[in-house]
Design brief:
Mean pLDDT: 91
Number of strands: 2
Low-confidence stretches: none
Order of helices and strands: HHHHHEEHHHHHHHHHHH
Helix content: 55-70%
Shape: globular
Largest sheet: 2 strands, antiparallel
Radius of gyration: 18 Å
Structural class: mainly alpha
Number of helices: 16
Distance between the termini: 9 Å
Length: 259
C-alpha cells in the first residue's frame, strides 16, 4: 500500500535533496555552522567532537532525509528526537534554541545544497529557488526555528547570507577555529584522518579568505586540483549514473513507496 508523503515528488525538496552530489557541500556547511560562536560552543561543550568530528553532520543529514522523504510519522519522530537532543544544549552565551544560530545552520544547509546542484546539475530558476525556500519552512519547524525567521524570497535570503558570511561574528571566538579544525582534520577513526586533506579542500571552497584565516583553515594544497577535477568530470558523469548511484537511498525508498 502506497504511503502518504508530505513532500510531493515534483517538489524542489525532492529535486535537490535526492542528488548524492549535494553532499559535496557538507564539509563547507559543517565548518560554516561552527564558525558561529553559539553553535561552536554548543558543539564543543555537548559533544565528543574531537573523536567523532563528523557525527553531528551525519545526524543532521539523517534528519534532512527523514524530513524530505519520510512519512508524517517519521517526520514527527525526527522532530521529537531533535528536540530531545537539543534540550540540554544550553549554557553561557549559547543555546540550541537560539533562533539566530538556528537560522544560520539552516542557511548553510540550503546554500550548500543549492550551490552544488547548480554547479553540477543545472541552474535553478528564481521561482524554483523561492519554492525551495518556502518548502524549507518545514525543515525549520522540525529543527525548532520559528517559521517566520526563514526568508522565502531568494534575494532576501542571499542578502542575509552575504551579510552574515562576511560579518565579524563568524569566527569571533577561539572555539570556532578549534571545532572547525576538528571537522576537517578528524583525529580518528584512522580512515577519516587519512581523508582530512579532502575534507579540507572541500570545505574551504565555500569559505571567504578572511574567514579561512580566522578559522586557521587557509592553505589547503589539494583545493584547486580537487575542484578542477570535480568541475571537469561531474557534469558529464552524473546524468549517466544509474539511479542507485546517483540518488540518495532515502529518495529511492520514497519513490518505491508511492509507486
Amino acid at each position: 500500500m502506497a504511503k502518504s508523503l508530505p513532500f510531493h515528488p515534483d517538489s524542489r525538496t525532492w529535486l535537490i535533496n535526492r542528488e548524492r552530489l549535494v553532499l559535496l557541500g557538507g564539509a563547507g556547511a559543517a565548518v560554516l555552522q561552527v564558525a558561529h560562536p553559539a553553535v561552536a560552543k554548543g558543539v564543543a561543550r555537548h559533544s565528543n567532537f574531537r573523536s567523532d568530528s563528523t557525527g553531528r553532520l551525519r545526524r543532521t543529514l539523517d534528519a534532512v532525509y527523514a524530513i524530505a522523504f519520510g512519512t508524517s510519522e517519521e517526520i514527527a519522530q525526527t522532530r521529537a528526537q531533535v528536540a530531545a537532543a537539543h534540550k540540554a544544549v544550553r549554557g553561557p552565551g549559547y543555546s540550541a534554541f537560539d533562533p539566530d544560530a538556528q537560522l544560520w545552520v539552516m542557511a548553510t544547509l540550503i546554500m550548500g545544497s543549492v550551490t552544488m546542484f547548480q554547479r553540477f546539475i543545472r541552474p535553478l530558476e528564481r521561482h524554483e529557488l523561492n519554492d525551495f525556500l518556502a518548502e524549507n519552512v518545514a525543515f525549520a519547524e522540525v529543527f525548532g526555528l520559528p517559521p517566520d525567521r526563514l526568508p522565502t524570497d531568494w534575494s532576501e535570503f542571499e542578502s542575509y547570507w552575504e551579510m552574515t558570511i562576511h560579518s565579524a561574528l563568524l569566527g569571533s571566538d577561539p572555539v570556532c577555529a578549534e571545532v572547525a579544525n576538528a571537522v576537517v582534520h578528524p583525529e580518528r577513526p584512522m580512515h577519516m584522518r587519512m581523508l582530512s586533506p579532502v575534507f579540507h579542500a572541500l570545505a574551504i571552497e565555500f569559505i571567504p579568505p578572511t574567514l579561512q584565516i580566522k578559522l586557521r583553515l587557509e592553505g589547503a594544497a589539494l583545493h584547486p586540483v580537487l575542484w578542477k577535477v570535480l568541475d571537469s568530470v561531474l557534469p558529464s558523469v552524473i546524468p549517466r549514473l544509474p539511479p542507485r548511484f546517483r540518488f540518495a537511498p532515502a529518495y529511492l525508498k520514497a519513490r518505491s513507496a508511492i509507486s
